[in-house]
Design a protein that fits this description.
By secondary structure, the chain is of the alpha/beta class. Helices cover 38% and strands 14% of the residues.
Length: 320
Amino acid sequence: MNHPHHGNHLQTVLGPLSPAAVRGPALAHEHLALDLDRTGDRAAVLDPAVHGKRITGELTALREEFGLTLVIELTCRGMGRDAEALARMSEESGVAVVAATGWYYEPFHPEEIGDASAERLAGTLIREINGGIGTTGVRPGVIGEVGSHGDVPSEPETRSLLAAAKAAVATGLSVATHAQLGHGGLAQLDLLTGAGLAPQRISIGHQDLLDDPAVHKTLAASGAYVAFDTVGKESYQSDATRLRLLLQLLDAGHADRVLLSCDISRHGYLESEGGTGYGHLFRTFLGQARAAGVDEDLIDLMTRRNPVRFLTGGAAHEDV
């Protein structure tokens, strides 16, 4: 089977990128354009026409100040994805952006999920991965954020996760999940690996919202990535708790499985609206980690080498 993506490059919204070109840090789980509004209050929206310039400004500033090189943008089908806006923001900011395909958790499933088989749904993803999003020519470089909620995925979520695994196996892309409030990660991992996907191809999302170090260690020991990806979202979890959980995972020897990000998913999180912004990880949280004894090599591992290796499916010992 042909794996055009496998191991040799990252598929970004502006085309292929060599892993060696990623010399600075990445944000492993972000949104630059999305629409999750179901109430009409427009809070859970990042509208490129309204917020695009401000988002581009934040990315540019982070590239200049911290060397931000890459954003993994996990807005997928039914979440208000906008491939053209991503390409524009990437071009204007000078930060590479990886776009996604897949389906979020059940409350946001579009009608196409219906009772379609996992095989049929996988076909939809494979066509988009190989042919581009709509008529944009922009090809997804990751499958995510594929969602479930609760301890066990619902029936439609199970089909969506199986479709993600099948499409990942067929195309050589990796899968990032949305585990609602951190729950259900072990069930997601079982489902994805049971469908033939290697654990190092999987990132289990929102684990910083789950205060359960044993689960984090189990996920990491399996070879899957553990995403601490809502850094700064203090209304869900304090950064103090996030840091404690991160240090416990590092102490257990799993630094090579950690992914970090802020998951900006509402315009109120933008710096221009008084939020913590995309830079909170670099400006605040990593400073707290350094103060707790985390060294620069570990920070480079977590913010640069790990996300690149996640996307390419590389082994832990591979030099990135």
